[in-house]
Amino acid sequence: MTGETTVPAAVRIHGRSAQRQEVRALLDGLRTHSGQLVVTGEPGLGRTTLLHWAARSFRSGPVLHLGPDRAGTARVTAGELLDTLRAAAGEAPLLVCVDDAHLWDAPARTALGRAAEHLASTGRVGVLLSVAGHRAVDPEYAHLPVVRLDPLTPPQADALLDDVTGGAADPAVREQLLAEAEGNPALLLALVRRLSPAELRGHRPPPRPLADAATLAEVAGEALTGLSPDAHDLLLTVAAAVRASDGPDVDAGLVADAVRHLRQASAPLPDAVRRPRQASAPPTAPFPGPLPALLALADDRLRFHGPLVRRTVHATAAPDRRRAAHRALADVLEAGGRRLPALLHRSWSLTGSSPAPPLADRLAAVAADGTVPVSSRLRATVYARAAELTADGPARAERYTAAAEQALLAGRPDRARPLLAAARGCAAPAGVRGRAELVRGLTELRDGPVGDAHQSLLLAASLLAEDAPGDAATAALAAADAAWAAGDLPACLATLAPGPQAKTTAARGADARCPTEHVAGAVRDHRVGMRALLEGRLDRAVVPLGQVVERARTEERPQGLLRSASAALLLGDVDAARRAGARALAAARQLGADALVPQALEYLAYAELRAGRHPQARTHAEEGLRTALRAGQRNTAAHHRAVLALAASIEEEPDVVARHVTAALTTARRHGLAQAATLAEWAAARADLGRGRPFDAADRLGLLVLPGPGRGHFAVWRLAVPCFVEAAVLAGRHEETRAVLTDFAGWAAFGADPQAAAQLARCHALLAPPDRTDDLYRRALARHDEAGGDFERARTALLYGKWLRRRRRPREARGRLGTALAGFDRCGAGVWAAQARGELRALGAAPHDGGAGALSRLTPQQLRIARQVAEGATNREVALTLAVSTRTVDYHLRKVFAALGVRSRLELARVVEHAGRAGRGEKTGAQP
User: Per-residue pLDDT tens for 314-331?
Assistant: First the structure.
């Protein structure tokens, strides 16, 4: 006996903040009215856990748990059930929790659904149902509001694994566990329990397959009970077909033909599958027939409602029947000329695990054929299956490596790592080992310590230098990217040092679309230009980097377009960076290169940020964060969080800034991301500066920009100098600005930042004697007009207006402050707009747009809260009226104050009253 790992009985809930917020809203609303909510999700995603959390969290009254009591519940009518709930509630709110409500029989479901729909007459009763997400929602509950549980993201699953193992899992074992669990928390816990402590720590190899039939059945097997043999055959065929599909669904006609082959037409199929294109119904209509509830049919495509049940169907089927299903699919696909999926199914129909070299060679050849239109994910599956059937060690290693390359391109680093581990166990030539190190380094660059990535990529470059110099140059440039992310300037320069010329090499697989010499030339130009830039020789950097940017005009591959976007950002050409980034994003999506989508969005977000277009930067970064988390790229996610923090720092959202800064710094510190850390710290400091806290801002920024070992990233800290100068001047620390301003003047002369010249003039104006200040502010504004960008120009106008007011020049100050306010409003800089309004009020001038238009900037919820507060309601009274928590009211009220530029409830009442008069005047045609 090897024993098993003991998993703690209770662990904290991971990754369910949005769902808990919706449940919390239901519970808070029970103070004033009834409500209902359906929680749905596949087996193992935590429906029961969420209901238990709700029951423990409810403190306002009793909690009633109902179950499928087949002895009597089915005979209760909706009216009788409502009477029961009314009696149970009494005078206090009542929470009713119904777990697995889909297991109730039809009359009971009808009574429960109708009762939930008519809760208004029962007082204050909340009904919280959980129903299975691996099947269609029962019609009795379809009218109720639904909250869906999705699989955990990679970081959330990683945190859960740490929680239950205390961080004891070996890194390689961790990757296997996370990959096999696919974000399902119950399956992850079951897999951990299956391992012995020695296996968990990597001292002994784990069992294979890790997620075996018994483990999957433990989590999702209950969903397969009570199925007929016909239904089992249909489910198995769909599950088998999806394994060789580019998506979660498959053609219903293919399944129908395969099942006929499987059962030799001995039994009729369900009508929904047997007649997918009936003349009496349009192609998109649901077809009649006893289709198993575990399946959904739409547009002649069949799919499971959830991936775990699909895996369980395939794994728990009898081996002979499973092989027969694959053989039937192979026969149908071969007859239709679909070579790649037919070969894959044929390989899965083999008996035993012995090598099959001829079939392995055919699989590898079709996977390497770039003309076959399949996704990187499916190509990785084909390469991996070819490796499993290969006897020769070097060939086996090469095929596992090719599979890892495709898995990484598909945005599945969790799949790439085990494939690399398999390749490492085989003897392989230097070129194959170099490709494996390149994949490993790129994986770590996006989701691991960048110092480790740098070393792996350098090793890859040395291993590839002789046989594939073009790939070696790519690896070296990626190593420079790793050193850049780490803020290691000497390592970056050393990596970019001149190397041997890249020679043309044979392209492989899907990469055969682009001439290698063209790629090698772009990489070489990028390295030369990047090194010249870091050495401060702009004259030598412009030409090679400009050539990389120019190549974007004819480039079609997302990798080349990303290089062009990066080169444009280095040169400060934000418009070219936006164009190349947008094209890279479109190309990556079109090719299914999911791993490159977060990086394209990162470059787009940086370009918008450098151009001062914060709302657009925020939009790209929000999407980039979602795609990075889905692709398991925590480092890329940290960069997106830093951009989101910078975008939010100009708005009145300190909580949002703090959340993104904390998340970005957590990853940055663990993985050595100096660039992301500097951006995040800058965002926190800029938020302090915008909220009128210059001492805090100067303290934070001083650590980033002042000379010393703790100075921020070599390519980023200068961007924060204007904020530091402003904060230091306001904090009375003028002397500290001298040294950094000298450096910043050199940066402005460099020309890589279009805003730097105007910012330098503004900094000089802040430090200049009164007789020179006017001219410097005007010069700064003129430079802003040349460079563009509302936010930076508005900041200069605000500082100029403040200076003019203190010099007792109110008329000029009013004009500058009004211009600043308009600029801040245009770019959504609410916290800075509040400063401008405060200065205007100090002049005795009413800020513009203080009438009915001022309220138009509020969201509907903010407007409701503002009007009730203006009428004298307390926050608690507003919360009860709107059925929200007082914390929600507090949050929205802060946003209202910032948007309207008011500081008290009395000022808010005046603004709302004035807006009402203005609105009535507009309707009646009255003039002020």
Answer: 999 999 999 999 999 999
Pick left, alpha or beta for residue 829 (phi over 0 → left; psi -120 to 50 → alpha; otherwise beta).
beta
Residue 262: C-alpha distances to residues 66, 116, 229, 232, 322 (Å): 43, 45, 12, 12, 10
User: What pLDDT sits at residue 73?
Assistant: 44
The DSSP H or E segment spanning 45 is none
What single-letter amino acid sits at 510? Answer: A
Report the candidate in 767, 677, 769, 771 with the shortest Cα–Cα distance to residue 728: 767
With CA atoms as reference, report the closest residue to 70 among 110, 116, 105, 113. Answer: 105
C-alpha span between 63 and 249 (Å, rounded): 41
Q: Give DSSP secondary structure letters for 232-257.
A: HHHHHHHHHHHHTSSSSEEEHHHHHH
Query: Tens of pLDDT along 887-896?
Result: 778 878 888 8
Write the CA distances from 49 to 36, 44, 95, 164, 194, integer angstroms: 18, 10, 16, 16, 21
Minimal CA–CA distance to 831: which of 679, 641, 693, 736?
Answer: 693
DSSP secondary structure letters along 438-460: HHHHHHHHHHS-HHHHHHHHHHH
Dihedral sign computed on CA atoms, order 794, 795, 801, 805: positive
Looking at residue 638, its pLDDT comes to 94
Dihedral Cα 719, 720, 724, 726, nearest 10 deg: 60
Work out the number of other CB atoms within 10 angstroms of the CB of residue 553: 10
Alpha-carbon distance 326 to 340, whole Å? 13
Q: Residue with structure tokens 């780490």?
A: 486
Burial of 897 per CB tally in 10 Å (0-12, 13-18, 19+)? buried
Q: Which of 211, 213, 157, 221 is nearest to 184 (CA)?
A: 157
How large is the average pLDDT for residues 615-619?
88
pLDDT in tens, 132-159: 887 777 788 888 888 899 898 888 888 8
Question: If DSSP codes are grouped into helix, strand and coil, which group holds residue 220?
Answer: helix
Q: Which residue has the tokens 């890194």?
A: 171
Residue from 758, 763, 762 nearest 741 by CA = 763
Q: What is the pTM of this model?
A: 0.75
CB atoms within 10 A of CB 88: 15
pLDDT at 899 over 70: yes
Percentages (nearest 5) of helix, strand, coil residues in the chain: 65, 5, 30
Mean pLDDT of the chain: 84
